[in-house]
Design a protein that fits this description.
CATH class: Alpha Beta
Structural class: alpha+beta
Number of strands: 10
Protein name: Nudix hydrolase domain-containing protein
Order of helices and strands: HHEEEEHEEEEEEH
Distance between the termini: 35 Å
Largest sheet: 8 strands, mixed
CATH topology: Nucleoside Triphosphate Pyrophosphohydrolase
Radius of gyration: 15 Å
Oligomer: single chain
Number of helices: 4
CATH architecture: Alpha-Beta Complex
Strand content: 25-35%
């Protein structure tokens, strides 16, 4: 078991879910990790844990979303865990910085330390359009942007854009809307 795997078990075991279905997902994630020592990694065929972070500008009342090149939708920053990630929180923060280009992001403390705010399980073709779908077991955080934060598009995004809390694109999926609502409650 890697330290990242152990951290995921620790985080999910100690996390108090809020919202419909969140405790059921938490238990499913823990069962996945108990059954799969490789359950953190993209190569796990049954699915894998991913880490994401919604970038929030609390002073401006807005969120930064990326137009994801593979999915073609506006999403929070996030992706696969990597061997160099020591913790789930570190993976989420790394993904947020890499995909947003925003320096100085900090994860929102939950119960005094960076913690998840929501879980989301979804199917995605992370190996390409012609490959079978994989299950992403996403652990979602909130990353707070410093005042005056400026985004920088990377090769992992088609576009980056700030949206007001109530001004999300019309085709934004339910998962992202729920994450934005949860973040708004917390900040």
């Amino acid at each position: 078991m890697t330290s990242l795997h152990a951290d995921a078990v620790r985080v999910l075991t100690g996390w108090t879910p809020v919202g419909d279905g969140q405790d059921e997902l938490r238990r499913a994630y823990l069962a996945h990790l108990a059954d799969r020592p490789d359950g953190m990694w993209r190569a796990c065929p049954e699915g894998h844990i991913t880490a994401s972070a919604l970038v929030v500008d609390p002073a401006g009342g807005r969120v930064l979303l990326t137009l994801h090149p593979k999915v073609g939708r506006w999403l929070q920053m996030g992706g696969h865990c990597e061997p160099g990630d020591g913790t789930l929180a570190a993976a989420a923060l790394r993904e947020a910085v890499e995909e947003s280009g925003v320096e100085g992001l900090v994860l929102l403390p939950v119960d005094g330390r960076p913690g998840p705010v929501k879980l989301d399980r979804h199917l995605v073709r992370c190996a390409g359009k012609d490959r079978p779908e994989n299950t992403h077991l996403d652990v979602q955080y909130v990353a707070l942007a410093p005042a005056g934060a400026r985004e920088l598009i990377s090769e992992e995004s088609l576009d980056l854009r700030w949206f007001d809390w109530d001004g999300l694109p019309a085709d934004t999926d339910r998962s992202v809307r729920d994450l934005v609502a949860r973040a708004r409650e917390l900040v």
